[in-house]
């Protein structure tokens, strides 16, 4: 595949669905640049930047960082890419209708368009169990019961409407996110073929 060919994939799903895990594998397999807004924000927090200071309390509460900050971060990352075509895998973005509209405009400006939005479906008991397990293993500051509850609510209120948005555009690909990481990856590869 020539690196001048554009490919823009989104990985969507509730907290703990496996977006980050699958995004890394998929990016490697399809030679895409992974853009994870959660990772970018955690990097800002770790470096103590102004943006990181602003974002930390919001992330620890499980709420969403403002569309302006998020869209600005993604825009600079896409502008800074080193291939001719736009070849990106978006993990955790867009998360609001405003972000989805901004992405569409951004891609138009680069003469690119969305290839597919992959939705990982996992039931809530499994999601909570994965996140509490990660809390024990890694101690991520938003993996505690109160914040997990808020993250789930925020997902339902602000991000779930995007499922219809992408369905209506014929871009949505639903994937069962239960099972081993390899099984889920095989299902994603299948819906993208
Ligand atoms: P973000 O980092 O995007 O968090 P999230 O959406 O809550 O997702 P997670 O990282 O918890 O889960 P995931 O679906 O990526 O699953 P993972 O692969 O890690 O965002 C964090 C915060 O940043 C947000 O709350 C918000 O404040 C802010 N933010 C980020 N983007 C934003 C945006 N666009 N707009 C506004 N604010 C934004 O897996 C989870 C666990 O499960 C891991 O331990 C993993 O090892 C395990 N696992 C993965 N796959 C499997 C499997 N198949 N079976 C068993 N376990 C598995």
Number of separate strands: 5
Supply Rg: 16 Å
- Which blocks of ≥5 consecutive residues have pLDDT under 50? none
CATH level 1 name? Alpha Beta
CATH homologous superfamily heading: P-loop containing nucleotide triphosphate hydrolases
Helix content: 55-70%
Compute the average pLDDT.
Answer: 95
Which cofactor or ligand species appear? BIS(adenosine)-5'-pentaphosphate
**Overall 3D shape:** globular
Summarize the structure.
The chain is α/β, with parallel strands linked by helices.
Description:
With 193 residues, the protein is α/β, with parallel strands linked by helices. It has a single domain (7-192), classed as P-loop containing nucleotide triphosphate hydrolases (Rossmann fold), CATH 3.40.50.300. 57% of the residues lie in helices and 13% in strands. It is built from 9 helices and 5 strands. The chain has helices at residues 19-30, 37-47, 50-61, 67-79, 97-109, 124-138, 145-159, 161-168, 181-191, and strands at residues 7-12, 33-36, 87-91, 116-121, 172-176. Helix 1 packs across helix 9, helix 2 (37-47) crosses helix 3 (50-61) and helix 4 (67-79) packs parallel to helix 5 (97-109). The chain is globular. The two termini are 14 Å apart. The structure holds BIS(adenosine)-5'-pentaphosphate. BIS(adenosine)-5'-pentaphosphate is lined by residues 13, 15-21, 37-38, 41, 58-59, 62-65, 70, 92-93, 95, 99, 130, 134, 142, 151, 180-181, 184.
